[in-house]
Structures are given as structure tokens and as C-alpha cells.
């Protein structure tokens, strides 16, 4: 639920603006990798697995239902499904500078996932490869 409050997540309507971008996390509360991939469910009430995303992958939120989010991966072959907010993050650390950033947007460019980030401590935005970001506190 923290994610929804932190991002001011909204339910995307038909033809509305794209939803927020978040990072998928398969890490435990200590930042240790627990699941290399996070499964996407058919719905909050149906645990059938319909897709997945690797730890650290970026997704766009399409819909919110309580602590559940319908998301679509940002990659050349996107997958879509429902995931609990426990497995989503709204901020990361840049590997090159060590600063924390939030996500403004993401897109695939020439086969590479690029993320538009904003420093938590400053203004301005910059497109960087998703591989240059890691979960805050990841070990």
C-alpha cells in the first residue's frame, strides 16, 4: 500500500494518459534476492500465472485494485498481469552516481529499456538504461 501512496497511483481510463512506471522486486525486506522472477497472476482473485518479470524489470501500472496492480512489462515482448504492491518499487539507486531517483517514464529504444529518472534531491530528468538502476537497499 506504501507504493500507491508514494506514487499517487491512479486507475487508468480508456484513452487516458499512461500509468506510472515502477520497478519489479523479487527481494526480501533485507534487500536479498528471494525470487529472480516475480509471477503475474490472471487477477487478484485468480492465482493462475499468466506471465512474469525479472527482478529489477520495469513495468507500467495499468490499473489498481486495493494492494493489487495490473501491470505491463516495458520490453520488446511485453507481458501483462496482476502483482501485489509488495513486489513493486517507486524508486531506485543509480549505479553510476549512487543517488536515489524516482521514475518518470520508460520506453524501449533500439531494443534497450530506457528509464526517464528524476533525482530525489533535485530537479530535472535524464534518460538512462534500466541496467544502470538497482533497487534501493539491494544487496
Which SSEs are present, and which pair or pack?
Elements: H1 2-7, E1 21-24, E2 37-43, E3 46-54, E4 58-65, E5 68-73, E6 80-84, E7 88-89, E8 91-94, E9 100-109, E10 112-119, E11 126-129, E12 133-135
Antiparallel strand pairs: 1-4, 1-7, 2-3, 4-5, 5-6, 8-9, 8-12, 9-10, 10-11
Walk me through the structure.
The chain is mostly beta strands. It has one helix at 2-7; strands at 21-24, 37-43, 46-54, 58-65, 68-73, 80-84, 88-89, 91-94, 100-109, 112-119, 126-129, 133-135. The strands form 3 sheets. A 5-stranded antiparallel beta sheet has the order 6-5-4-1-7, with no helix packed on it. A 5-stranded antiparallel beta sheet has the order 11-10-9-8-12, with no helix packed on it. The chain has a two-stranded antiparallel sheet with strand order 2-3.
List keywords for this structure.
139 residues; mainly beta
User: What is the number of helical segments per DSSP (H or I, 4+ residues)?
Assistant: 1
Order of strands, main sheet, comes to 6-5-4-1-7
> How much strand?
over 45%
Mean pLDDT: 89
Proportion in helices: under 10%
Termini separation (Å)? 23 Å
Low-pLDDT ranges: 4-15
Radius of gyration over all CA atoms, rounded: 14 Å
Overall number of strands: 12
Topology pattern, helix = H, strand = E: HEEEEEEEEEEEE
The main pleated sheet reads as:
5 strands, antiparallel
Structural class call reads mainly beta
Label the overall shape: globular
Amino acid at each position: 500500500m506504501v507504493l500507491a501512496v508514494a506514487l499517487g497511483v491512479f486507475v487508468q481510463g480508456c484513452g487516458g494518459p499512461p500509468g506510472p512506471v515502477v520497478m519489479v522486486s523479487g527481494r526480501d525486506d533485507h534487500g536479498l534476492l528471494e525470487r529472480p522472477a516475480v509471477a503475474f497472476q490472471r487477477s487478484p482473485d485468480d492465482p493462475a500465472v499468466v506471465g512474469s518479470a525479472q527482478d529489477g524489470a520495469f513495468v507500467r501500472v495499468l490499473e489498481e485494485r486495493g494492494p493489487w496492480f495490473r501491470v505491463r512489462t516495458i520490453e520488446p515482448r511485453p507481458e501483462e498481469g496482476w502483482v501485489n504492491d509488495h513486489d513493486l518499487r517507486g524508486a531506485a539507486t543509480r549505479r553510476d552516481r549512487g543517488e536515489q531517483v524516482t521514475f518518470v517514464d520508460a520506453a524501449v529504444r533500439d531494443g534497450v529499456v530506457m528509464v526517464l529518472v528524476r533525482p530525489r534531491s533535485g530537479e530535472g530528468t535524464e534518460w538512462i538504461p534500466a541496467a544502470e538502476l538497482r533497487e534501493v537497499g539491494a544487496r
